[in-house]
Design a protein that fits this description.
globular, alpha/beta, 382 residues, 11 helices, 7-stranded mixed beta sheet
């Protein structure tokens, strides 16, 4: 581990600028689980000569903002979706393409979203999706593939719920059904309807973690340069740990059963219990193996802090890192993926990360305390 830390976290070496303010005090006050190893703030790798690791560099001209405070550059949201496209680059504004599911979903959300406003977070950039996210829906395109056997149907990853919704028609009606059933902020625990107007399959993601890499060249070429380098180093480190990596996502619905529909005779707690049980299995590495999903995504803001990475966990936690190079990846795998700890100097922000290790599925017990509002929200929309 000492050698890992000695060669880890040297993003500051990309420029000779001063070190940004240390966010540790702010994060500790929120009880965010942190790793405070000294080497995390070191701007230069210690290993030299034959012992120096061979990491891919971004090349000359890759300028990153190393001076402004990065923590707080993430704004609260209630839910985030990643729509399957099988691509790594997209038009500049993905929701402006009216014939795509991203554009149609944006239109549906504008028409259907309640006027809910979230409370201001105690620390900018660190928030609860439920308490601070309001009705904000973040719509992204992704490199993930649909497993649907029908044309003009897409798959949608939903966070923080950690769901795959498959067979979503690329139509306004399909986008509206997706929003009403799974994305409306009044739906606390998404659940299939017993008699939907358009049948959609929802499957809890089987991944131990789902990593999203911004690769949107038509928004900023730095992200497009960084994403494949980070993906290669993530894959190397994860597979070296004996885990598996999935960069497709099109097999999930075929290999894992869909969530049960909520019928008139079901207890309102049934969907949340089933979802929680299956996400706990993913977090624990059911079957003795762990798989990490890695997908490229469209613009998430903050491209001046490239490379940008989001790590989502079955617990509902989402850790947003910035200023990443390949050199930081071994420490991220060791501390954030394996130990559930946040590296404060790399943090842009995070959702649902306070008060527990980020991979701790006990978060779902807190969700139960708030109350399941699935049936009430669905009745209101009917």
């Amino acid at each position: 581990m000492t050698s890992l830390l000695k060669r880890g976290l040297s993003a500051l070496s990309l420029s000779g600028s001063s070190t940004p303010a240390d966010p540790t005090v702010k994060l500790s006050a929120l009880d965010v689980p942190l790793t405070l190893e000294d080497c995390h703030v070191c701007p230069h790798p210690c290993a030299e000569g034959e012992d120096a690791p061979d990491f891919e560099d971004y090349g000359k001209g890759f300028d990153v903002d190393m001076e402004s405070e990065m923590l707080g550059s993430l704004k609260p949201y209630a839910r985030q979706v990643v729509i399957s496209t099988g691509k790594a680059d997209w038009p500049r504004e993905v929701t402006a393409e009216s014939s795509t599911l991203a554009g149609l979903l944006s239109k549906a959300a504008d028409a259907l979203a309640p006027s809910t406003k979230g409370a201001s977070p105690q620390v900018d950039g660190v928030f609860s999706t439920r308490e601070n996210g309001g009705a904000k829906l973040t719509i992204l395109n992704g490199s993930n593939l649909t497993g649907s056997h029908e044309r003009e149907r897409e798959a949608v990853l939903v966070f923080p719920d950690y769901l795959l919704v498959e067979d979503v028609p690329v139509s306004l009606a399909g986008a509206e059904e997706l929003y009403k059933t799974y994305l409306d902020p009044r739906v606390v625990v998404p659940s299939p309807s017993a008699a939907p107007s358009i049948p959609l399959r929802a499957v809890p993601l089987p991944y131990f973690a789902t990593i999203l890499l911004c690769s949107h060249k038509r928004r900023d070429k730095r992200c497009h340069i960084a994403a494949p380098i980070l993906e290669r180093e993530l894959t190397r480190c994860i597979e070296a740990s004996g885990w598996e990596v999935d960069t497709r996502g099109d097999h999930i619905a075929d290999e894992h059963p869909a969530l049960s529909a909520l019928t008139s005779t079901s207890s309102p707690s049934d969907p949340s219990s089933e979802l929680r049980t299956r996400l706990q299995a993913a977090a624990a590495g059911a079957g003795g193996s762990r798989t990490v999903g890695i997908f490229k995504i469209s613009h998430i803001g903050g491209h001046r802090y490239a490379g940008n990475v989001i790590i989502n966990f079955p617990s509902g936690a989402s850790v947003w890192y910035g200023r990443l190079t390949a050199r930081e990846i071994p420490a991220i795998v060791e501390y954030t993926l394996k130990r559930g700890l946040v590296i404060p100097q790399l943090l842009r922000g995070g959702a649902n990360i306070a008060g527990k290790t980020v991979g701790d599925v006990r978060a779902f017990d807190e969700q139960e305390k708030v109350g399941v509002e699935v049936e009430g929200a669905k009745k209101e929309k009917q």
